[in-house]
Amino acid sequence: MGWFVFSIITLLCWSGSDFFSKIGCRDASDKYSHLKMVMAVGIVMGLHAAYEVFVGGVVITWDVILTYLPVSLLYILSMAMGYIGLRYIELSISSPICNASGALVAIIAIVSGIADPMEWPQYLAIALAAAGVIGLGFVEAHEDDELRAARQEAGNFKYAKSWLALALPIAYCILDAAGTFADDLVLETLNEDSANVAYELTFLAAGLVSFVILLLKKQKFLPKQEGPKYVGAIFETAGQFAYIYALASGESALAAPIISSYCVASVLWSRIFLKEKLSWKHYACILTTVLGIIIMGVYDM
């Protein structure tokens, strides 16, 4: 399979992960849904790591795991924040905010002075992504409560206006950006396959810790409730696997913009299947953010 097929697979898998994670975590009455989601992803990633080591021949050592540990923890913590946020806000809003982490990485690089000179469309992309996220926050904060209730009626899930609803995906964005920034530095000394297995094994450890906490909290695991979480975990892991091959094809400049636009598919799935309905102001901000993400993807690598 070529880069285009792997790019489309990544797009579908990661948007599928968004969708099923939302189904698995949207019950506001289950305050431990994020831990159950971390456990599910940890188990699936642990199985994939075992395959990579024992079948694929990837070399992994404690030195690699410890070297990559800060990056792994930033990524895992960001995903946990995202899972919590899915209880309080529509996927249509949270996914574009989370995906704006690439713009934040660029801003960090520019401010710290380590960024290479960029083309003007790249600066425009950063501005668009940042403006879109800020706009989403403004629209959410100032939306009339009655209008909010009316548009959420079709989805049968009501989300109250809350600072936490926006703070959590923003926290994901910040932590993921920090992880990406650290990733670029650490991967200068590590093999990418070994680093990915180290990340998956660390996620497995986080999943096991989550499992112990859930047992201590005497939580029940019902197949109907837990099923979507494991489907989301499978999509997440499969997307990561396809992503590596898409970028390893040598056509990363073409693959990146396709992959980076997976939040568009997430918004589409949430509109079709979850019946999420947003105002035109929401969609205008989302379009602005997504446009910035896609432009950054075009110039990526």
Quick summary of this structure?
With 301 residues, this protein is mostly helical. The chain is 78% helix and 0% strand.
Describe this entry's structure for a reader.
There is one protein chain. The protein is mainly alpha-helical. It has one domain (3-299). Helix content is 78%, strand content 0%. It has helices at 3-25, 33-54, 62-85, 91-99, 101-112, 120-142, 145-152, 163-186, 192-216, 223-248, 252-260, 262-272, 280-299. α1 packs parallel to α11 (252-260), α2 (33-54) runs antiparallel to α3 and α6 (120-142) packs antiparallel against α13 (280-299). The longest helix is centred in the last third of the chain and has 26 residues, at 223-248. It is globular, with a radius of gyration of 19 Å. 46% of the residues are buried. The model has no long low-confidence stretch (mean pLDDT 87).
C-alpha Rg (nearest Å): 19 Å
Helix fraction?
over 70%
Order of helices and strands: HHHHHHHHHHHHH
Q: What percent of residues are in strands?
A: under 5%
Q: Which spans have pLDDT < 50 for at least 5 consecutive residues?
A: none
Mean pLDDT over the residues: 87
> How many DSSP E strands?
0
Note the overall shape: globular
How large is the count of helical segments? 13
What summary fits the major beta sheet?
none
Distance between the termini: 21 Å
Structural class: mainly alpha
Count of spatially separate domains: 1
